[in-house]
Amino acid sequence: MEAVLAHLRGAIERGEYAIGDKLPSEAELCRALEVSRPVLREALRALQTMGLTVSRTGKGTFVVASTVEDPTFGDYAASDLLEVRRHVEIPVAGYAARRRTPENLDHLAHLLDRMERETDTTAWVAMDTLFHLAVAEAAQNPVFRRVIEEIRDALARQSAFLNELGGRREQSNREHRAIVEALTDGSEHDAVEAMAHHLDRVETTLTDIVRSPRTDSDLPTEGEPQA
């Protein structure tokens, strides 16, 4: 999928598809790129997340920008989402280290074990949002949970985007484990540091995806498996 995305993104950025242009139909693109429809649809969704296209029901996909600036996840721009996460989730991790109950720790440990065994991206993304909700719950302040609930859909969309294009799952599991270990130790300092590191890595991966498109040479040649 990454190679298909890079090809379409490159065509838009080079002006082969200008702002206002309609992309070829899914059937045409599948034939031209020699990929399956599910692979193409993933790439088209990523283009929309990057803010390069919009999908209009019954009409097709249209180009609305020629460069990637700030991806959108649900109702929120990536930069806005990350800013809020830093101001909320980092101190929340510290509170959670001081206030967590044995039940909170058991829930987080069980969730983390499931995430580390999970191979399906959709299932893992769902548990990723549950993990961050569980950390908020461990802070014993219902307002924190309400804030995370408000951005839950955006978190899930961002998580899926980073896993599909940035291969974040294993790294994220390690970062989550560091957070849980800090909470288990009751170390406010370590919990804050672990959450800050986690969000730093999210930002770095997102920046790499936005700024470093792959080239058409990454498209599979005949006989190679599709992304």
From TrEMBL:
Tell me the keywords, alphabetical order: DNA-binding, Transcription, Transcription regulation
A molecular function GO annotation: DNA binding
Q: Ranges for the HTH gntR-type domain? A: 1-66
Name the domain of life this protein comes from.
Answer: Bacteria
**Database matches in CDD domains:** WHTH_GntR
Protein name as annotated: GntR family transcriptional regulator
The species this protein belongs to is Streptomyces qaidamensis
